């Protein structure tokens, strides 16, 4: 596997701090990865900026992820500086000259949408994950769906309702049928999402979603099995094992509570699907990653109905607690949470040229 070019790094400690090159090999059944490592002795610890918190509706999730990432990072390899963008941006800017790389563990607006990524670009600080473009288009569900469609990826049918344009529930139901999923266009962690089964519930659900975003996605609900596929890599991509998501019987779909309440969801990795469906789900996850100009890593959520797979959305900064979906998939592939973070940091430095 290509390991990328490290030419153009401007600071000596970045050149000398590579911990090793890890090689990913997909097994023939596409359900597990083997991770080997060729280690070199680090000459100097990297100084990392760890960003969590922020000002979005997903602040608490971000803080939890940031705390667990901090605990998992190898303190023998990294000097870690923590920042909450809600209060610490001036300090981050002042510290930028001594920061080797950043871990952006932010979710939602002003963190996952390209804004903080743009700040890192201006400061010349490498960071894990997608850049400004990939972060922005993945965060906007309508932009992402249009790119999915252009790339030929299968998606549920949808319409967009804007708060200033009014809403004709009858016309929407006539076009899309029922049930429907109502989602704010920009947002994550299932915040503001409602499942509508009856026509009379549509207006209230859309108006509730408008409280989070003036543009709302109204999407055909796919009855089936929810699966998710993680991807790691920059130019050369590797698919992680597929995870099957089974919400508690008391919940109709994988909502905010199902995602974050212990015991509310059963997650099975690898998913209980045959090798052909596994390969197709992994192909779609990698195709979605490339289609949205992602980098480093991503996790694409999909619905499986019979033999058909529908792409729902791609997360450029998926949850990063030890039990979150992407770390679960990595662990199933033989990569611990700590080594996953090492890998993401390596990828943040791979091929990035200093811009100071």
**Cα-to-Cα separation, first versus last residue:** 30 Å
According to CATH, what is the class of the largest domain?
Answer: Alpha Beta
CATH names the topology of the largest domain as Rossmann fold
Principal-axis shape equals globular
Helix fraction by DSSP (H/I, runs of at least 4): 25-40%
Structural class: alpha+beta
**How many beta strands in the DSSP annotation?**
15
Largest sheet: 6 strands, antiparallel
Q: What's the quaternary structure here? A: single chain
Kindly provide the radius of gyration, computed on alpha-carbon positions and rounded to a whole number of angstroms. 20 Å
Number of helices, where a helix is a run of at least 4 consecutive DSSP H or I residues: 12
Would you kindly provide a written description of the structure presented here, covering whatever features stand out?
- The strands form four sheets. Strands 10, 11, 12, 13, 14 and 15 form a six-stranded antiparallel β-sheet that branches. A four-stranded antiparallel β-sheet has the order 6-9-7-8, with helices on one face. Strands 4-3-5 form a three-stranded parallel β-sheet, sandwiched between helices.
- It is built from twelve helices and 15 strands.
- The chain folds into three domains: 12-129 and 334-349, Rossmann fold; 137-153 and 222-332, 2-Layer Sandwich (D-amino Acid Aminotransferase, Chain A, domain 1), CATH 3.30.470.20; 158-220, ATP-grasp fold, A domain (Dna Ligase, domain 1).
- It has helices at 12-15, 59-72, 89-95, 115-123, 132-139, 141-150, 169-176, 202-210, 256-260, 275-291, 325-332, 337-349, and strands spanning 20-26, 33-39, 46-52, 78-83, 101-105, 158-162, 180-184, 194-196, 215-220, 225-233, 238-239, 243-247, 265-268, 296-305, 308-315.
- With 356 residues, the protein is an alpha+beta fold.
- The two termini are 30 Å apart.
